[in-house]
Amino acid sequence: MPDKCEYGLLIDYEYCTGCYACQVACAQEYGWPEGMGGIRVTEVEQKLPNDRAYLAYIPFPTELCILCTPRTRQGLEPACVQHCMAACMKYGKIEELAKEMGKKPRMVLWVPRS
Ligand code: SF4
Ligand code: SF4
Question: For residue 51, how far is its CA from the centre of ligand 2 (angstroms)?
Fold first, then answer.
């Protein structure tokens, strides 16, 4: 069984399309009522010169995320990771994910509270 504290999620939000599949997958897996869940996708609008705007989506786990321990114990990927078609999310050992973080910007490493 993986030690939960050694594992985390690496989120590359540069390629997040804002499809909300991760949020839906988590809600379906754990039966969260509306407005609750282990991950939340936030829309962020950045103003650019010449009245243009850049819309970014930032998926971020909440305090309710249990890192899908029941799934990972069976060797499965977390539900959110499995359903992200843009492959923005990666589950793994914190040490290994931290090394990947240095390779490009717009990445977030999330570690559950122990
Ligand atoms: S790892 Fe599991 S519990 Fe955490 S956000 Fe993803 S689907 Fe929800
Ligand atoms: S499933 Fe992937 S692409 Fe879709 S909102 Fe979540 S992180 Fe972004």
Answer: 27
Please report, for the domain that includes residue 36, its CATH number: 3.30.70.20
20 lines ligand 2 (CB under 6 A): yes
Q: Is 61 in the pocket of ligand 2 (CB under 6 A)?
A: no
The reported pTM is 0.91
Instruction: Print the domain residue range for 40.
Output: 4-110
Residues 53, 97: Cα–Cα separation, whole Å: 31
In this predicted model, what pLDDT tens digit does every residue of 37-46 receive, in sequence order? 999 999 999 8
- As for how many domains the chain has, the answer is 1
Name every residue whose Cβ is closer than 8 Å to that of residue 95 and which is 6 or more positions away in sequence.
6
